[in-house]
Amino acid sequence: MEDSVKLNILQELIQINTVNGHEQPAAEYLKQVLSDHGIESDLIALAAGRTNLVAEVGEHDGPVLALAGHLDTVDVGDSNKWQHNPFCGQVIDDAIYGRGSVDMKGGLAAMVNTLIELKEAGLPKHGKVRLLATVDEEIGGLGSLELTRQGLVRDVDAMIVGEATTNRLEYAHSGSFDYRVKSYGHLAHSSDPSLGINAVANLARFFEYERHAFDDVKASPSLGSLIHSITVFHGGRQLNSIPDYAYLEGNVRTIPEFDNTAVQNRLQTLVDRLNAEMDGQFELEVVASFMPMATDPADQFVSLVQQSYQTVAGQSLPLAVSHGATDASRYILDEHRFPIVEWGPGREEMSHQVDESLSVAEYLQADQVYLQIAKDFFGDD
Fold this sequence. Notes:
alpha+beta, 18 strands, six-stranded mixed β-sheet, Aminopeptidase, 381 residues, Alpha-Beta Plaits, 9 helices, elongated, single chain
């Protein structure tokens, strides 16, 4: 493929507004691109306007290498703060601008280019490369969860998630557990608070207990300490009334040694304790749950990816971990176990930013890295 064709694919993909919940036009566009190069793909609907895409090249017999990415982006925020139209896909010097250029239409387009180049070369000779393009990664991971439920990773032998990693190979990332705690009290006039039950005051008690709820959790050798924060606190509607309802929201960055199930059980135990000790009632609600992912850094696939990158880029690819969750959190829910790593073009710190931009050189090199990984994985010339 000519570089101009590769760049045009990314530009057109950026020009499609795929803010979370509106991913289908991008899936349909990529299906047409793949079809134009003789590659069939399936659109797997999740809901109205939301469609995953799955495509394969290669033979039915042999190992399966998965290239995974997502179609959705975060919102642009205040578009007046952007110097460049968020959906322009404009190239200026060595950068292509637009929402999703880094997170992660650059990585996804590079994977599409890789599939096309493999098809043109008649590769792989023994095995398959499967592209998984999902909806809803930025919020709930429902797209990758649906593909997992449908068994589309059950035969996978290794996976690359194409998130931007600032030229590092991420072999592990923290999980993410979002929760809400609701506090129910009894309404009363503030002139006689003894007649009521103050839901805000009770919730403040939970806040204090939560600060030390995970003090005994030991750090993970790969991901470090479990990180927990209460980020939203809301209660009361009127200055002269004892509030009968309040809630808070929190986030826990989980580790394999103390995962989302363990965190939920710990928080539920705290809620049960307060319900037994205090007037009023507490209720725990799980808002979202992404499991931590960790591949052994000594795994053969990790070394293979590093060597493939060295072959293409002429430099080493250091190992790293991340505290952000990805679709890998959903794919590891399958009972079948396989190594997963994350590598893609772009600097992580550009994700979700105003005037998000990606180096054109990095983008054009990315599919060559993916292509080399596939060749090395299958042992093809």
